[in-house]
Amino acid sequence: MDEDGAPDNPGAILYQVPTRTGQKNNYNLGVGFSITWSEPLDKKLQDQCKEAAAANIALMQQTTANKRLDFEIARLKNCGELIKQGISFHPKSPYYKVCADVVVRDVTYIKPHVHPIPSSSPSPSQTSTLQSLDSDPAALLGAPLQTGLDQPSP
């Protein structure tokens, strides 16, 4: 400061006081390498664990295959029943392909129905021509009775 009390160089460093802070310059370089080798003392348990895992995987695969087979059999049965009844999706429907590979062959199922059979009582002339009682049903229906005794056998 001058005699006027104002600093000559405001903001300039006028002096330095050494102060201990504990900081040091530190440089470190480390290179390392590590290997671990582990071997089980009882290999039997490790083999059993592998067998159990393989058996569990095989069981899950078989369960999945069984469910797929059940699905396909149910689809085949239901589609077959619907096809026999004449029911199907329109060919342009996205669901048409669900039953597209199902084939129904040799359908022997006949819907239950009844045929009326007229019954007639035999006339007196037909009753006298009957050879035995076993032929009554044919004679009662009015069919001509031929015994085949008039023709020679080959």
Describe this structure in words.
This protein is mainly alpha-helical. The protein has helices at 43-84, 124-129, 136-140. The protein has a domain at 42-108. The protein is elongated, with a radius of gyration of 53 Å.
Task: Name some characteristics of this structure.
mainly alpha, elongated
Q: How many whole angstroms does the radius of gyration measure? A: 53 Å
Low-confidence stretches: none
Class computed from helices, strands and strand pairing: mainly alpha
Task: State the share of residues found in helices, binned by percent.
Answer: 25-40%
Major beta-sheet overview: none
Q: Quaternary state, please?
A: single chain
| Count of helical stretches | 3
N/C terminus separation: 162 Å
**Average pLDDT number:** 79
Q: What amount of the residues lies in strands?
A: under 5%
What is the 3D shape? elongated
**How many strands appear in the DSSP assignment?**
0
Please provide the ordered H/E string of secondary-structure elements.
HHH
In short:
Helices cover 34% and strands 0% of the residues. It has 154 residues and is mainly alpha-helical.
Outline the secondary-structure elements.
Layout lengths: L42 H42 L39 H6 L6 H5 L14
